[in-house]
């Protein structure tokens, strides 16, 4: 089977090229946006690259339909001829390479990975390994990370296991287990932190997380617990924590300045553990983040949790981790894992040794819908 590469200024034009060259029954295996060739690419110009095969028995990742005819003026005809020249050049290069898939080519996957196709190469992985990669992609693991993981497994697994999908999955899980970084469980009876604070963007579940941790400390470990909230931006959030405090019969202090935070902790001196809830801040608002930094510095917590939600995109997670860095969180909590099918998008952050994941939450139930992060459980939610 030959895999051919097509480039055009738009998906519309690229599909037309595939249809003209390979026919409407061609299978589209891969698409991505790439820099344009020549000077335009250096200036930020983009175009669409498609990888297609003439084998109609393959399951296409896209439907190829004849594009509706459009009227073109002289300028667009000139532009089109230039694009077609570049595409024809790429056809000559791509047609020299044969697909490494062999009899396994019937699987539905991105046959050309990002990192390999960027350099004009094709991965020499077996069909089972390509299916493992497809599972990673379907779990929202970033493409380049999936490629690196597959390269790692391909270089370490030999013999019959190299073509056994189940064995490759086990090897992948073992590899992931070695890279995920888990923080300490604050339930430790002897080394538990006295002051614990939660920070993070709005809407990620900080108040509920604080309530869950406080309930575990009081009911499961029989500790004297106090609550502090500096969430004066949203009255509803204060009311929510106040309700939890009344239900659990816990003392609670409402503060708004760094000095009041310090005084509140002193007033709760007879408590074995103090949990601090903070106002949700936009990661993009540097003033709010600096205000939060001052509050946390005054509280001087033993543990500061950056609370992030699983449904967030990788970009949103990365943005939050970067923008809240001045507050110096010691670990993080991943909430709402029950709202997503997999945790692949969070994998890059689960591998950060400077910010290990301490807890995961899976619902609103207080105190039961929270658990200390477990490596095997996290891996199982990825692959």
Topology of this structure?
Elements: E1 4-8, H1 11-22, E2 27-35, H2 39-42, E3 46-53, H3 74-94, H4 114-118, H5 127-138, H6 143-156, H7 165-179, E4 195-199, H8 206-220, E5 225-229, H9 235-248, E6 252-254, H10 258-267, E7 273-277, H11 286-299, E8 303-309, H12 314-323, E9 331-335, H13 347-350, E10 357-361, E11 370-372, H14 375-380
Parallel strand pairs: 4-7, 4-8, 5-6, 5-7, 8-9, 9-10
Antiparallel strand pairs: 1-3, 2-3, 10-11
Helix pairs in contact: 5-6, 8-9, 10-11
Walkthrough of the structure:
- This protein is an alpha/beta fold.
- Helices cover 41% and strands 16% of the residues.
- It folds into 2 domains: 1-99, no CATH class; 195-380, Rossmann fold (3-Layer(aba) Sandwich).
- The chain has helices at 11-22, 39-42, 74-94, 114-118, 127-138, 143-156, 165-179, 206-220, 235-248, 258-267, 286-299, 314-323, 347-350, 375-380; strands at residues 4-8, 27-35, 46-53, 195-199, 225-229, 252-254, 273-277, 303-309, 331-335, 357-361, 370-372.
- The strands form 2 sheets. The protein has an 8-stranded mixed β-sheet with strand order 6-5-7-4-8-9-10-11, with helices on both faces.
- The radius of gyration is 27 Å and the shape is elongated.
């Amino acid at each position: 089977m030959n895999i051919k590469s097509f480039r055009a200024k738009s998906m519309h034009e690229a599909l037309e090229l595939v249809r003209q060259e390979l026919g409407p029954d061609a299978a589209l295996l891969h698409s991505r946006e790439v820099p344009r060739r020549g000077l335009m690419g250096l200036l930020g110009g983009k175009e669409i690259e498609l990888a297609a095969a003439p084998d109609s028995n393959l399951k296409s990742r896209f439907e190829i339909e004849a594009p509706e005819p459009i009227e073109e003026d002289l300028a667009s005809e000139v532009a089109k001829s230039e694009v077609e020249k570049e595409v024809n050049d790429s056809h000559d290069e791509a047609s020299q390479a044969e697909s490494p898939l062999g009899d396994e080519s019937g699987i539905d996957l991105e046959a050309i990975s990002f990192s390999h196709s960027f350099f004009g190469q094709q991965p020499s992985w077996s069909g089972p390994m390509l299916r493992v990669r497809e599972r990673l992609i379907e779990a929202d693991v970033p493409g380049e990370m999936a490629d690196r993981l597959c390269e790692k497994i391909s270089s370490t697994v030999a013999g019959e296991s190299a073509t056994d999908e189940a064995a490759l999955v086990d090897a992948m899980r073992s590899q992931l287990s070695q890279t995920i970084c888990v923080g300490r469980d604050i339930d430790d009876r002897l080394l538990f932190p006295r002051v614990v604070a939660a920070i993070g963007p709005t809407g990620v579940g900080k108040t509920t997380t604080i309530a869950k941790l406080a309930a575990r400390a009081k009911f499961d470990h029989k500790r004297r617990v106090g609550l502090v909230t500096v969430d004066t931006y949203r009255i509803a959030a204060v009311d929510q924590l106040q309700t939890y405090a009344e239900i659990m019969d816990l003392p609670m202090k409402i503060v708004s300045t760094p000095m009041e935070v310090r005084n509140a902790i002193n007033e709760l001196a007879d408590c074995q553990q103090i949990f601090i809830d903070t106002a949700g801040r936009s990661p993009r608002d540097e003033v709010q983040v600096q205000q939060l930094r001052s509050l946390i510095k005054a509280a001087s917590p033993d543990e500061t949790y950056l609370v992030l939600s699983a449904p967030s995109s990788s970009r949103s997670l990365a943005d939050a981790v970067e923008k809240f860095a001045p507050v110096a969180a010691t670990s993080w909590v991943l909430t709402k894992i029950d709202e997503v099918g997999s945790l692949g998008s969070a994998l890059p952050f689960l591998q950060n040794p400077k910010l290990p994941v301490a807890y995961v939450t899976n619902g609103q139930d207080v105190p039961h819908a929270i658990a200390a992060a477990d490596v095997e459980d996290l891996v199982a939610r990825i692959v």
